[in-house]
């Protein structure tokens, strides 16, 4: 079998002998009944029938200061098919509304102008008011209360001062928040570093409910829902996209109800149950833009973790052209005596002393404590990956050969073409 795996913008071919014991674990989004509607029409239909909410034009009436929270450069949100329609409908409700597009960078770097143009197009970038959130700028934050976890909720003043706060986004499985989208536009999207760190504390990350596709009982999700309500996030337009990053479904309306409906829709298509636990699990981070660094690639790796035996070998196919993606993430893994020792240290850290990137290296530690990980990445950063405790390979076929040498030719292999788009139910 020849399969093209997502890798950067080009892809990478996997060659596997049909005589081998393998299975492919992929979302069934691609097998959805094909709609005859365009991406624009799918979004417009959702906005015409909002869930649990009046239409956006109705909400905008009498609201002078309207803020649309937009996803940043690390999210493949097809904003060109969302934002123009949100702007249009807001102005139908109030032609004089002052509208700000607030870029929800969360804990990421600032989005560049080039990236904004790629998201929105020149016309919107040149003509609309755009502000970029900076979680490190405490002077730009407003304290609006205390979350259920006890962490303070400090959000960007632009969002806090809005007469109407709405957001765009997309829904995918998320490796510790259950699903992305909806309430995540607030926390971590436009929250301060203090709030993000409190929400991503070691106790919450260690919870068995802080996993892909799980919302009920998830302490991270509980805080995020509270943040959405406290910030008065009134309305969302969230989409679900296919492997080609095309809109296949959309929800609009109440920030909580519409998001829940979108998650239910996605779960029905993205949950997969392997035939058996894998000796070797191959995963990707869905290609560009999600595979730009190792930090983000932990997400796709958790899909392989869920599919594999406790001592299974994981192969992560992710370009990581930007390197590690987080200095704290890199230093923690590079300098630890072992993943187990690092995990013991992490679990002792109190909520209010959570360190930047701690959640990411905590999950990476969890994986490395159980699995050998072979990274297939750009040549430039392979030495760095080795310093962090990973094995590296030139391409996925070499990585598979390395794994088979250890696990044998009878090894069961799970291939996960897009590790961020599936919810792998761990085999019994």
UniProtKB/TrEMBL annotation:
InterPro entries: LarA-like, LarA-like_C, LarA-like_N, LarA_C, Ni_dep_LarA. It holds the Pfam family Lar_N. Residues 11-213 form the LarA-like N-terminal domain. Transmembrane segments: none annotated. One of its GO terms (molecular function) is lactate racemase activity. Residues 274-424 form the Lactate racemase C-terminal domain. It comes from the Bacteria. PANTHER family: LAR_N DOMAIN-CONTAINING PROTEIN, LARA-LIKE N-TERMINAL DOMAIN-CONTAINING PROTEIN. This is Nickel-dependent lactate racemase. The lineage of its organism: Bacteria, Bacillati, Bacillota, Clostridia, Lachnospirales.
């Amino acid at each position: 079998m020849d399969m093209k795996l997502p890798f950067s913008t080009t892809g990478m071919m996997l060659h596997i002998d049909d005589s081998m014991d393998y299975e492919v674990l992929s979302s069934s989004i691609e097998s959805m009944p094909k709609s005859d509607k365009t991406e624009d029409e799918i979004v417009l239909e959702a906005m015409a029938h909002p869930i649990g909410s009046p239409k956006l034009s109705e909400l905008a009436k009498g609201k002078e200061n309207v803020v649309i929270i937009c996803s940043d450069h690390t999210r493949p949100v097809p904003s060109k098919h969302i934002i123009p329609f949100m702007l249009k409908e807001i102005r139908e409700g109030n032609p004089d509304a002052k509208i700000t597009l607030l870029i929800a960078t969360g804990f990421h770097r600032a989005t560049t102008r080039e990236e904004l143009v790629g998201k929105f197009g020149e016309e919107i970038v040149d003509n609309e008011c755009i502000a970029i959130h900076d979680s490190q700028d405490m002077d730009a934050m407003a304290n609006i209360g205390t979350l259920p976890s006890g962490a303070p909720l400090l959000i960007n003043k632009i969002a806090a001062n809005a007469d109407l706060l709405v957001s765009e986004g997309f829904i995918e499985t998320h490796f510790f928040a259950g699903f992305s989208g909806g309430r995540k536009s607030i926390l971590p999207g436009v929250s301060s570093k203090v709030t993000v760190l409190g929400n991503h504390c070691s106790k919450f990350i260690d919870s068995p409910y802080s996993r892909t596709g799980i919302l009920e009982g998830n302490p991270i999700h509980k805080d995020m829902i509270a943040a959405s309500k406290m910030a008065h996030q009134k309305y969302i337009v969230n989409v679900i996209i296919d492997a080609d990053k095309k809109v296949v479904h959309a929800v609009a309306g109440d920030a909580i109800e519409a998001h829940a409906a979108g998650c239910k829709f996605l779960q029905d298509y993205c949950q997969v149950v392997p035939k058996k636990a894998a000796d070797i699990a191959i995963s990707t981070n869905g290609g560009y833009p999600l595979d730009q660094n190792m930090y983000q690639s932990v997400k796709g790796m958790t899909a392989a973790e869920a599919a594999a035996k406790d001592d299974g070998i994981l192969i992560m196919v992710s370009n990581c052209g930007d390197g590690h993606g987080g200095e704290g993430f890199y230093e923690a893994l590079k300098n630890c005596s072992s993943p187990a020792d690092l995990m013991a240290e992490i679990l002792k850290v109190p909520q209010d002393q959570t360190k930047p990137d701690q959640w990411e290296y905590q999950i990476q530690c969890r994986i490395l404590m159980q699995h050998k990980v072979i990274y297939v990445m750009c040549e430039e950063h392979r030495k760095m990956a080795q310093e962090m405790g990973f094995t590296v390979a030139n391409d996925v076929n070499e990585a598979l050969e390395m794994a088979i040498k250890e696990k044998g030719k009878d090894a069961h292999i799970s291939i996960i073409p897009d590790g961020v788009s599936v919810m792998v139910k761990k085999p019994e």
